What we know:
Layout: H1 2-23, H2 25-30, H3 35-60, H4 65-93, H5 100-130
Amino acid sequence: MVARKALSPLLILFFTVNVFLIVFRDFVEKKGFSVDVLLWGNILLCAISVISFLLLFKGMNAESTAGFLRSVYGSFMIKFFIVAAAIFIYLFINKKDFNKPAVFASMFLYLVYTFIEIKGLLKLSKDKSNG
C-alpha cells in the first residue's frame, strides 16, 4: 500500500506525457520530434522505473547491507542495459530515419523518471525511519 502511494508520481508523469504527446502531436512533430518514438520511450521508461522502484523498495527492507547494495546495482544494471538495448535496436531498425531529438528527449525523460523514483524512495525511507 505504501509503495503504491510512492509510485503514483511516476504514473502521473506517464499519463501526463502520453496525453501531451497525443493532444499536441502535430506541434511536437513540427518541432522535429517523432511522437511514436517518444510514446514508446515513455512506455519503456515507465515500465523499467516501476521495476527499478520495486527492486529498490525490496532492497530497503533487506536485512543486510549486501542485500541493499545488490538491489541498487541490480536496478541500475537493468535500467542501463534495457535502455541501451532499446536505443541500439531503434538505431539498427531505423538507420535512415533515426530521430535524434526524440532520443534525446527520451534521455531527458529518463532523468525525470529517475529523479521521481529516487524522491519517492527517499520519502519512504524517511517515513520508515520515523516510525
